[in-house]
Predict the 3D structure of the following.
Amino acid sequence: MKIRKAEKKDIPRILELLGQVLQIHAEIRPDIFIPGTIKYTLCELTELLKQEDKPVYVAVDEDDLCMGYAFCQLREQPFSTNMVSFKSLFIDDLCVDKQARGQHIGESLFEYVKQQAKELGCYEVTLNVWTGNTSAEHFYEKMGMKTKERQMEYIL
């Protein structure tokens, strides 16, 4: 397994994996997510891969086939004037092909993202997990992540 920045040739496979993630989210939150859709269009994904502050990393097998990805965003803190200034790397989305889960691909991707964050001078790596996605919660806790803040909602 090799991890590298995503390239244009990876787009069809990434789109496939985006569908897998959306399905998980649609099962957890059918009130928000529309089954059978994906987060990015082909054009949006093509443009996203060109953005330096939003790196996309892929885990590829020996045939250079994308088996998982991590969409990241480099963020500058603070969001207000009362916080110390620092950089963070936000994992917007991390996915491993459902057929390849259990092979430590997610762990490898996460460790790679942590290393990239260090090289970029980041203070932290952050992400959001939907309530109900217990497998993701357990995975990230196993990787050493802790809850930083909780966002709550009241549905009208």
Notes: The chain has one domain: 2-142. Strands lie at 2-5, 56-60, 66-76, 87-96, 124-127. The longest strand covers residues 66-76.
